[in-house]
Amino acid sequence: MITSREQALALDRDDELAHLRDRFELPEGVVYLDGNSLGALPKSTASHLEQVVRREWGQGLIGSWNEAGWVHLPERVGDKIATLVGANPGELVVADSTSVNVYKALSAALTLALTERPARRRILSERHNFPTDLYIAESLARQHSCELVLAETPDQIPHLLAQGGVAVMMLTHVNYRTGRMHDMAALNAQARQAGVLTLWDLAHSAGAVPVDLNGDDADFAVGCGYKYLNGGPGAPAFVWAHRRHADRCTQPLSGWFGHAHPFTFTPAYEPASGSARFLCGTPAVLAMAALECGVDTVLAAGGMAVLRRKSLALTRLFIELVDTHCKEHRLKLVTPRDEAHRGSQVCLAHEDGAYPIMQALIAHGVVGDFRAPDILRFGFTPLYTRYVDVWDAVQELARVLDSGDWRQARFERKGAVT
Amino acid sequence: MITSREQALALDRDDELAHLRDRFELPEGVVYLDGNSLGALPKSTASHLEQVVRREWGQGLIGSWNEAGWVHLPERVGDKIATLVGANPGELVVADSTSVNVYKALSAALTLALTERPARRRILSERHNFPTDLYIAESLARQHSCELVLAETPDQIPHLLAQGGVAVMMLTHVNYRTGRMHDMAALNAQARQAGVLTLWDLAHSAGAVPVDLNGDDADFAVGCGYKYLNGGPGAPAFVWAHRRHADRCTQPLSGWFGHAHPFTFTPAYEPASGSARFLCGTPAVLAMAALECGVDTVLAAGGMAVLRRKSLALTRLFIELVDTHCKEHRLKLVTPRDEAHRGSQVCLAHEDGAYPIMQALIAHGVVGDFRAPDILRFGFTPLYTRYVDVWDAVQELARVLDSGDWRQARFERKGAVT
Question: What is the ipTM of this complex?
C-alpha cells in the first residue's frame, strides 16, 4: 500500500489507461467519485451533439432519418454496447429508460416461463435490489397473478431457487447500495438447473466490470446508459434477449418501432425479428447521439479486462487507505473485500453520520453520494479516476471525520439520482 | 384567392406571425412542409443544449439534478405544454415516447373503467388511427381480456358508442394520414353520456390546433414532442390525466420517478400524487432541454387562436391553389374542406403516383411526405411556413404533374417517420 501522495502520483504515471482521462471534461478541483450515478462528460459529446442538431436536424430535417442513419441508431449503438457485455451484434438494442426496459424484459421472460410452466408463479429477486426493479416486478406480479419473492441476503438465492415454483429470477448484477457483485455464471447455472429464466440488470455493470451474457448463459438483460457508459443525464437504456428467445418472446409495449415493417402502417402488430421487437416508440435521436459518444469512451479502453484491473486497483487502494487513515472512526465497509464479489464502487456505512459526512465531503470537492439510511457511496470509473483522486478522497474523508465538523453542519436533504 | 407569387409575398408582409420564422434555422432553398413529422430546429436549441451539456452536466455533474432543476423538468416543461392543450399546471408531465405513454394512459383508463363497469370489455378506436396506438391497444386488449373495436369511418363512432359495451374510447384528435380533426367536445359528451372514458392522442394537435382538454371534458391524453412542438427527433412525449382521475388511477410502468418518494428507496411502490405517477424512469434531461426550446417557440406566438387562424389560412390557400393549378390531374383531396374538421395538414391522394410524385417534389426542394398507399401529405406549421411557401409548393406540384417526370423516375422506397 502507498503511504504518500507522491506514490499515488507515481501510480498514475505508470497507469496504461491514464491517457483516457483526457477524453473527459472534468471540473477543476473536484474529485468525482459519482460516475456510478452520472458518468462524466466526454469531450466529444458537445460537438457531436451540435453537429447532429445543426446539420442533421437543422439542415437535413426529416431526410436525416435515412440519410444520417437515425433509424438505425438503436441497433448501431446497441452493437457497440453489446461488445462490452458479451452479446453478439444484433442482439442488443438501445431504447427507453432502464425502468421501461425492465418492464419489457420481465414481461417477456414471465410470458415465456408461464407458457412453458404455468404452475410456477414466483418472481425471485432481492429485498435490496434497486427499487425501480422491484416496483416494476410488483406491477408485473400483480398483472400475471404471480408472487414476488425477495431474498433478504444474496446467500438465500440458491435456496429460494431450489425450493421451486420460481418462473423468473431477476437480479441486479452489481448492487447499487453495497457494490456487491453476483456470480452471474454460477447463478445462471443454478437457475438453468431449476428451470428458471434469468433477467439481469446491468445498470452498475455495463462499462464497469466484465460481463459475458452469452458465455454465462443469461436469458435477458437490461442496462443503463448514464452511469459507466457516460451517456448523459437520463440517457437511453438498453435491452438484450438471448438468441434462443429473441425471435419467440413477446413484450407488451408493442410500439411501431418494434414492428416488423414500421413504415407499411398496417393496423395489426407483427413483432420485428430478434431483439428489435423490444423497440417501442420513435428513437430518441439526440439522446442516443450523446450516448454513442459515451460508449465510445469505454470502447477506447480496448476491452473490459484492462478496465477491470484498474477498477480493482482503485477500489483496493481506497479500502486499504480507509482502513489505515480512518480506523478511529465508526465506518463499516459494506462492499465485499472479496474482489470476485466487488463491482466498481465502495460503500461505507456510518450509523448516524452518512448524510452530513457526504455533504461535508462534497463541500470540499470530493463528490460521492449518500444512500439511505447510512451509506457513503464512492464510485470508481477507471476511465477517468486517478490513484491520486483515491488518495485525496481518503485524506479528505479522514479530515472530515477527525475534525467532527459534520456534527455541526446542517444540510438540507435533497433528492439525488442513482 | 391569390393569383401570383407577388400576392403571396404581400400576404407574408401583412402576417402578424411572420417574425416567428426568425426563431428557426431552416435550410436555404427548401419549402419544408413536413413539420407534422419532424418540427424544424429552433435557433435557441443548439446553444441551450450546449449549455446544459457543458455547464450543467460537464461542470455541475450529479449536483445538477437539484441545482439545475433537472429533477423538475418533466413537470416544468409539462406545465408549458399544458397551456397549449387546455390543461392546468401540474396536470401534464413530459416522459418517455408517445407509444409508451399510450400504454400508460390506456392502461390507466382501462383499469378504472373495468373496475367500475367490469362487464364492458370494448376498446373503441379507428381502423385508420396511427398504427402504434392500435398496436398498443391490441396488446392491452389481450392483457385485459378486452376486444378492440375499430370504426371504419369517423361517422361510425357515435353508433359504436351507443351500441354499448365500450370501456374506453381512444382516438387520435387529428388523423395522421388524412388531416381530419375530430370534434373533441362532441365526442367526449357522447362518451360521457354512454359512460365511456376517453383517451386522446394529440400527436398532430399539440401546438397545431387549439385543444381544450379540461373545457372539452376529456379523461386522458398523450401527445408528441417532435412534431408541432419542435422538440427534435424522437423528443420526449407527454401524458395528461383529468384531475378527477389523476390521484386514483394506476398505470403499470411503476418506475421510481413516479413514486411518491423516489429518493427514500423503499422496496414497495407508492404512486406519486397526481399526474407525476405517469413518470417511470430517470428523465431524459438532454432531450427535455431540447424539447423546452421547441415548446417556447410555440408559446412565443401568444396563444393557439392566432396560430389556428394562420394555419387555416395556409391550408385554405393550399387547397384553393391545388384546385386551380392541378385540376387536370387525378388528385383527390383527402383532408376535409370543412375547416372545423381540418387539422394543420393537407393530404392529397393519387392512385398510383403518390410515392414518386412526392420524391420528385423533395428532389426539387418541396418537402412533404408519403403515406402508404396513396397519400401525399403536406404539413403547415404556422410558426415558420409562409404564404409564399404555399405558392411555391403548389407551383412545383403542378410542374411535376404537368411534366409527368415522376412516371419515369425510379425512387428506392425508404422508411420515414411520422
Answer: 0.97
Work out the minimum CA distance from B1 to partner chain A, whole angstroms.
Answer: 31
Q: pLDDT tens for residues B37-51? A: 999 999 999 999 999
Select from B150, B234, B256 the Cβ nearest to the Cβ of A135. Answer: B256
- Is B104 noted as a catalytic residue in this protein? no
Q: Which domains does chain B have, with CATH numbers?
A: 5-32+302-408 (3.90.1150.10), 49-299 (3.40.640.10)
Q: What is the pLDDT of residue A407?
A: 86
- For residue B64, the 8-state DSSP code is H
Distance of CA B7 to the CA centre of its chain: 31
Q: State chain B's mean pLDDT as an integer.
A: 96
CA distance B229 to B206: 7
Beta strands B375-379 and B369-371 are antiparallel
Half-sphere exposure of A375 (CA within 13 A, CB side): 20
Q: What is the arithmetic mean of pLDDT over A379-384?
A: 98
* Element of type H or E holding B184: helix B184-193
Query: Is residue A209 classed exposed, middle or buried when 0-12, 13-18 and 19+ CB atoms within 10 A define those classes?
Result: buried
Task: Say whether B61 sits in a helix, a strand or coil.
Answer: helix
Please name the residues in contact with B208: beta carbons below 8 A apart, sequence gap of 6 or more: B36, B174, B227, B228, B307, B311, B343, B344, B381
**A73-82 helix and A285-299 helix, angle to the nearest 10 degrees:** 20
Distance from CA of A3 to the nearest CA of B (A): 30
* Separation in Å, CA B71 to CA A60, A96, A232, B68: 32, 18, 14, 8
pTM summary value: 0.97
Residues of B with Cβ-Cβ distance to A115 under 8 angstroms: none
CA distance between the termini of chain A: 31
* Encoded amino acid at A284, one letter: A
Within an 8 Å CB–CB cutoff, is residue A372 touching chain B? Answer: yes
Of B46, B97, B127, the CB nearest to A282: B97
Positions of A marked active-site: 130, 201, 226-227, 377
pLDDT for position B214: 98
Is B227 catalytic? The answer is yes
B234 contact A CB<8A: yes
Q: Among positive and negative, which fits the CA dihedral A55, A57, A58, A63?
A: positive
Mean pLDDT confidence for A153-158: 97
Three-state secondary structure call for residue B125: strand
3-state secondary structure B378-411: EECCCCCCCHHHHHHHHHHHHHHHHHCHHHHCCC
Contact criterion met (CB < 8 Å) for B32 and A71: no
Amino acid found at A336 = P
pLDDT in tens, B361-371: 999 999 999 99
pLDDT digits (tens, 9 = 90+) for A336-368: 999 999 999 999 999 889 999 999 999 999 999
Cell of A365: 470537492
Contact (CB<8Å) A286/B288: no
Q: Which of A45, A61, A146 to mutate to probe the B interface, most B CBs <10 Å?
A: A61
**pLDDT at residue A53 in the model:** 98
Q: Which of B40, B136, B264 lies nearest to residue A255, judging by beta carbons?
A: B136
Contact of A411 with chain B, judged by CB distance below 8 Å, is answered with no
Grid cell 392502461 in the structure block, residue: B107
The rounded distance, in Å, linking the Cα atoms of A273 and A308 is: 34
Measured between alpha carbons, how far is B42 from A319 in angstroms, rounded to an integer?
50
